[in-house]
Amino acid sequence: MKKLLVLFVVSILLTSCASSGKLLQKGRFDDAIEKSVKKLGKEPSNHDEIIVLRKALKLADKTDREAIDQLKLSGQPSIWESVYNHYLKLNQRQELVSRLPDRVLAKVNFKPVNYIPEIAIAKRNTANYFDAKGEALLNAGNRFDARKAWEYFQKEKKLFPETPGLQRKISTALKQGKTQILIRIRNKSHQVLPKNFNAALKKINVRSLNRQWLQFNTNNSTSNAYNFVIVLNIKNIEVSPELIDRQIHMEKKTIDDGWKYVLDARGNVKKDSAGNDIKIKRYRIIRCRVTNIHLAKSTLITGTLDYYNYHTEQLIKSRPISSQFAFDYRYATAKGNLQAVSPASLELIRRTPVPFPSDLQMIFDTNRALKTMMMDYIRQDIRLFK
């Protein structure tokens, strides 16, 4: 892409730097005309540019007219788009040159031609060809030709947007041109899936997968002619045992417990120099037994995501797929003085004990991760569906 951009910029620079005479010598007649018109607009008396414009205009018009004559000789309906484009070039070139002063136009032998009738005929014949070609492709009965038909109808619409029935043809071609892909779920695990498991798994955003020519479906509809089927094969479901881990530890804290007198060796209260009783702070240790409880349980679903040709049932690609859901819950109980526990332990103690989820609930809760993985894989393999 960067190389193309560089080449495009270089070509523009070369064109802007090249003189009209050089462009004429290279056969780039329209580029030469455009450059001469610009210069003559500023310097109408520039003799060299008048000569270049006269020659370039004559050769460019001759080239287009000869191409039109040659195309008309073939008699094929497919010629009209090219004929139409040649007439447009003749008319646009004429409009560009006609902006110059009359004295310049006289010197380059400019004689205006009314191309409007010829343009109108070529335009109508071009649209008729697009319409007939689109109809024939649409009637071919396959999605690839329907896409080509859509392109022809779109080209017709650019020429005549208000053509009666054209929008209906465009819609029909768009519908017939789509590749229809059905997403199915198949349980081969020999285990009962939770109620609504399949329905929840099918609640995926298929719009994010859809493209102009790709239509994904999770519900099998008889009105759709499917081309591919994606099967999520659930082959194994494992639910771990319910694990309970209890860890008991003692937490303690030293707290202020008022004051007490200082006694001498005889058990009498000591006095300070002023004769007052001497008192000191008293502390005590409080304790609390904390039981940390950890509940753990997990589910693992494994299988494959398989892509099939809907009609031949040929396997196109298979991917291993798995999803895991873990139930992990911690709380704590306490016996003793709660003032002794740490903030972290207190947070666990305040938690409400909960029961283990059932096996079916655990299996059901894996569907979110399973859906995400399935969607990611389909996006990665989107080019498989033509």
Structural summary, described in words:
The chain has 386 residues and is of the alpha/beta class. Among the domains are: 18-113, Serine Threonine Protein Phosphatase 5, Tetratricopeptide repeat (Alpha Horseshoe); 179-252 and 289-386, Rossmann fold (3-Layer(aba) Sandwich). 45% of the residues lie in helices and 25% in strands. It is built from 13 helices and 6 strands. It has helices spanning 2-17, 20-25, 29-42, 47-74, 80-97, 102-107, 116-138, 143-159, 166-176, 197-201, 343-350, 359-364, 367-380; strands at 179-187, 214-217, 228-239, 243-261, 279-309, 315-336. Strands 1, 2, 3, 4, 5 and 6 form a 6-stranded mixed sheet that branches. Helix 3 packs antiparallel against helix 4 and helix 5 (80-97) packs antiparallel against helix 7. The two termini are 25 Å apart. The model is unreliable at 4-15 (pLDDT under 50).
- The count of strands amounts to 6
* Main β sheet profile: 6 strands, mixed
Distance between the termini: 25 Å
CATH class of the domain at 179-252 and 289-386: Alpha Beta
* Beta-strand percentage range: 25-35%
- How helical, in percent, are the residues? 40-55%
State the CATH architecture of the domain at 179-252 and 289-386: 3-Layer(aba) Sandwich
Total helix count?
A: 13
Structural class: alpha/beta
Q: What pattern of helices and strands is seen along the backbone?
A: HHHHHHHHHEHEEEEEHHH
- CATH-assigned fold name of the domain at 179-252 and 289-386: Rossmann fold
Mean pLDDT: 92
Oligomer: single chain
Which outline best applies?
elongated
Which regions have little confidence, pLDDT < 50, spanning 5+ residues? 4-15
Radius of gyration: 43 Å
